[in-house]
Amino acid sequence: MVFFKLLRHSPLSARIGLAMVLLNVFAALLAPVIAPYGETEIVGDVWLPSSLDHLLGTDHLGRDMFTRLTYGARNTIVIAFATTLLSFIIGALIGFFAAVIGGWIELAVSRIVDILMAFPTLIFALMALSVVGTSVVALILVIAVLDSTRVFRLSRAVAMDINVMEFVEAARLRGEGIFWVMRKEILPNAMPPLVAEFGLRFCFVFLFIAALSFLGLGIQPPTADWGGMVRENAGAITFGIFTPLWPAGAIAFLTVGVNLIVDWFLKITSGLKD
What we know:
With about 270 residues, the protein is an all-alpha fold. It has one domain (about 45-270): MetI-like (MetI-like fold, Orthogonal Bundle). The chain is about 75% helix and about 0% strand. It has eleven helices and no strands. The chain has helices at about 1-10, 10-30, 30-35, 65-100, 105-120, 120-130, 135-165, 165-175, 180-215, 225-230, 245-270.
């Protein structure tokens, strides 16, 4: 109810962003229903132009591009969301714990995170995936652990500010434990910045998975994935065929939509008025 009330007074940019995201979610949830062909089904010649039979043409193997884009939405978005959610569970839990308990534990964890963040994320991920493999589970775990370092920094900083508030001190005087304070006092007050950061980190993870797929270490074929689809059809540009622009445009479309919603949410939580 509150969401619809906020939406009614939201700016046009937020409504456009929400529509863009919902369109992708709709495609992801109903991919088997709205896709005219199977995900890996070869239905025509290579790189056919758009037609009534193939709305966006075909790819480098003769598979329907509209079908591949639809299934790619499901695979890419679900994996990116699961990865982002896991990274926030890991990063926020450790960040809150370090901020509340303090002392040498906070110092040790912070230094470990600093060491991990010192390595370029893409190179670190490429090294890790080349060792543990490129399965979906390995992809989610590796990226979630790497991305949780960024979440840790934010959650720790927010929790340290909340931890010195009077209501937290009152909870401690009542004899409440560390995890009760984290769950009941710090988490509710840290939600606005964490929710906004979740949207931004989702965009980063989404683009990161697409980049890994483009390099051949992300979601593996024949599973449809937007980053992999760009790589597979990149040679079409040489012949003046714009097939790889469809998945590239889908990546940009979803990223812009999420950022429009995040900007709106940040404006709401900051208390700024028009």
